[in-house]
Design brief:
Layout: E1 5-9, H1 13-24, E2 28-32, H2 35-44, E3 46-50, E4 55-58, E5 64-66, E6 77-80, H3 87-97, E7 103-107, H4 113-120, E8 125-130, E9 135-138, E10 142-145, E11 151-154, H5 163-168, E12 173-176, H6 180-190, H7 192-199, H8 203-207, H9 210-229, H10 245-249, H11 253-259, H12 261-264, H13 273-279, H14 290-299, H15 305-319, H16 327-337
Parallel strand pairs: 1-2, 1-6, 2-5, 3-10, 6-7, 7-8, 11-12
Antiparallel strand pairs: 3-4, 8-11, 9-10
Helix pairs in contact: 3-4, 7-9, 7-13, 7-15, 9-14, 9-16, 14-15, 15-16
Length: 346
């Protein structure tokens, strides 16, 4: 909808990158976020780069960044990019300030954020979306897309007026008729966020080490068992079927690195947002990632001890001094609590 106002509520790295690209390619965009980012962007503007050479800039003074949710009052499209734990609070702000006819897209990690919003905002048009790529915050208000992928979203006629704007921004929307399987597929991959957060390493460096990959394989194995029991089929997010991923991750480094061209071609700067949260003492969204698997397993009469241990370790790190776990240390910790079979090749 050319001329319509797009508001980004919860404008952190993901929200600033998506909204920034839309603004830099002709859309009217308003960001609503924290004071610390407002001051930084007022001084520097915004710069949006990616791994294939795109470099877009918004000059200081040209970015409409606000800290008050009253900025939602004129919005036609609202992109929600807060952490899953903040969905209830964001829903209350949307109920108070957002126009009833505004389209709301939840670009959040986790399962069922749109259900929370629909409960809080009856009668509104709310769509779940997914951001498959990694965005890295760099100095001077620079935000870099460090991995590939297109935006995924639940199919809806309400998107039609906005499709051109996202295409211009080189962020095309891929629409899906059944979106819950997409969310579960993304969650399966996001189980690595806690492992990456505890390691403190960029993604490529972390995934190049077999012990960290074995931790992820164990977390995914528990998740797949729980999903199978609940009759959930996660969408394929990589060239491999989801059920093959744990086996692939456990391969020795020399085989994995030779076969994992797509995975290991990610930008060296790519890193989990959980690292930034832990480094700055902010609360993470681990309860809506690994914690979701714990709840799913328990609902099916199963347990997910490795995922539970990852949740506990992240919460311990949130509350205490930062510890960076080596691959062997973390693998020993998870293997000790796991009740899944661990063969000699694990």
């Amino acid at each position: 909808m050319d001329g319509g106002l797009i508001a980004v509520l919860g404008a952190g790295s993901i929200g600033l990158y998506i909204g920034g690209r839309l603004a830099a390619t002709g859309s009217r965009v308003r960001f609503i976020g924290r004071e610390r980012l407002a001051a930084e962007i007022a001084a520097n503007g915004l710069r949006l780069t990616d791994q294939v050479g795109s470099d877009l800039r918004l000059a200081p003074g040209s970015v409409d960044f606000r800290t008050d949710p009253m900025g939602l009052t004129k919005a036609d499209l609202i992109l929600l990019t807060v952490k899953a734990g903040d969905t209830e609070a964001a829903g209350a702000e949307l109920a108070r300030y957002a126009p009833r006819d505004a389209l709301i897209i939840s670009f959040q990690n986790g399962i069922g954020n749109e259900d929370v919003l629909r409960r809080l905002l009856p009668g509104r048009t709310i769509l779940p979306g997914m951001v498959p790529f990694n965005v890295v915050r760099q100095p001077n208000s620079t935000f870099k897309q460090a991995t590939g992928g297109a935006l995924d979203i639940e199919r809806s006629a309400a998107l039609e007026p906005w499709l051109d704007a996202f295409r211009r921004a080189r962020l095309p929307l891929t629409q899906h008729g059944s979106f819950r399987s997409i969310q579960w597929g993304k969650l399966l991959m996001n189980l690595n966020n806690a492992i990456s957060g505890l390691s403190g390493l960029p993604l490529r460096e972390e995934l190049s080490q077999r012990d960290y990959r074995r931790c992820l394989a164990l977390a995914q194995q528990e998740a797949l068992a729980a999903m199978h029991a609940a009759d959930i089929q996660p969408a394929r997010m990589t060239p491999l079927p989801p059920e093959w991923l744990p086996h692939f991750l456990r391969l020795p480094d020399w085989i994995f690195l030779r076969l994992a061209g797509r995975i290991m071609s990610i930008d060296p700067a790519a890193r989990s947002s959980m690292i930034d949260a832990l480094d700055t003492g902010r609360k993470t969204d681990v309860d809506w990632l690994n914690g979701e698997i714990v709840r799913l397993a328990e609902g099916q009469g199963l347990t997910a001890p490795a995922n539970r241990r990852l949740v506990d370790l992240i919460h311990r790190t949130e509350a205490a001094s930062r510890r960076r776990w080596s691959g062997p240390e973390l693998w020993a910790e998870l293997k000790a609590v796991s009740n899944l079979r661990t063969g000699k090749h694990q």
